[in-house]
Write a structure and sequence with these properties.
The chain is of the alpha/beta class and 313 residues long. It has a single domain, classed as Metallo-beta-lactamase, Chain A, CATH 3.60.15.10. 17% of the residues lie in helices and 23% in strands. It has eight helices and 13 strands. The longest helix is centred in the last third of the chain and has 17 residues. The structure holds zinc ion. The site of zinc ion (ZN) has 5 residues, from loops.
Length: 313
């Protein structure tokens, strides 16, 4: 039993915004579900106060990961984390920033993780981005046949950047990739606690929803999994599930481009979590939330616990 008390709430997010009655997540036709698994890029243990504005020494199981999605139209990934150029990438960040980024030798590039799970990176047809920060786009160049999909707002944000590191983005990750980048407008109807949506495949299996704030075009993805399971991938709106639960901001204010908008998003997520506990909300850096999906593996584990799963193909 952990004995470290929670001492202080530093920056509570706004959870009292007036919200309309929620439009439902429309039913999808039978079979409009996807299979999911995780390719881990890095996992380490930190303390809660490092990820969320709460002076607590409870553990934060931190992660970088790529979610692999099997959709009837083909194989896709959400946020291909680290690329084969991870060592080169990190050589360009300031020394002090290594406290946050860590070092390349503890990271598994996504193409390597895919290959170990029996997936040829060339098979990936779509790379969906929650946002364009460097640790969510590292492997775009390693997925030669993937159309890169992100919100139009995020696309315009990235297109205006240059240099190796800018605004948390590494623009070189898009070098040679731009011809296969497709921005989408969130021009669909409100859903749940979100003002707009985009049915990405026209079958209700995956809806994009606006989470603008952490970056100008941050986007969440509502996903229908097998057996009635539901996920909402929220990128870096919060780094930890605790941020949604509390609700609370991240510890470091500058990590969000627009702190006020991010606070509103966190408030919406907090309300949604109370209304729809069946939807697993997955911050991109929360290993426990990510572990609600099986780990991609080339060979099925004999054990059901720990959940290695055959890679979706
Ligand atoms: Zn981010």
């Amino acid at each position: 039993m952990k004995t470290w008390p929670t001492l202080l709430v530093l920056v509570p997010a706004c959870a009292s915004i007036p919200l309309p009655t929620t439009p439902p997540w429309p039913d999808a036709p039978p079979g409009a579900e996807v299979e999911l698994c995780v390719v881990w890029g890095e996992r380490n243990d930190r303390r809660r106060f490092e990820g969320v504005a709460e002076l607590s020494f409870e553990p934060w199981h931190q992660a970088n990961a790529t979610v692999v999605v099997r959709h009837p139209s083909g194989l896709m990934v959400i946020d291909p984390a680290f690329g084969s150029a991870i060592a080169e990438d990190l050589s360009h960040v300031p020394g002090w920033f290594r406290i946050i980024t860590g070092w390349a030798d503890t990271k598994t590039p996504t193409p390597q993780g895919l290959a170990e799970a029996g997936i040829d990176p060339a098979e990936v047809r779509v790379a969906l981005l929650t946002h364009a920060h460097w640790d969510h786009t590292g492997a775009l160049r390693d997925l030669p046949n993937a159309t890169v999909r992100l919100s139009k707002s995020e696309l315009l944000f990235v297109a205006a950047l240059d240099g190796y590191v800018s605004g948390g983005v590494m623009p070189p990750h898009f070098d040679g990739v731009w011809p296969r980048v497709r921005g989408f407008e969130l021009d669909g109807p409100p859903v749940l606690r979100f003002d707009a949506s985009k049915d990405l495949f026209g079958d209700g299996s995956m809806l994009a929803v606006p989470l603008y704030g952490h970056t100008p075009g941050s986007t969440g993805y509502l996903v229908r999994g097998p057996g009635g399971r539901r996920w909402l991938f929220i990128g870096d709106a919060t780094w930890t599930s605790r941020g949604v639960e509390k609700p609370a901001h991240k510890t470091v204010p500058k990590t969000d481009r627009d702190r006020a908008k991010t606070g509103e998003v966190i408030g919406r997520l907090h309300v949604l979590a109370g209304e729809h506990p069946e939807i697993v909300i997955v911050p991109a850096h929360d290993a426990d939330a990510l572990a609600t999906m099986p780990t991609c593996a080339a060979v099925t584990s004999a054990s059901g616990d720990g959940a290695a799963a055959p890679a979706p193909r």
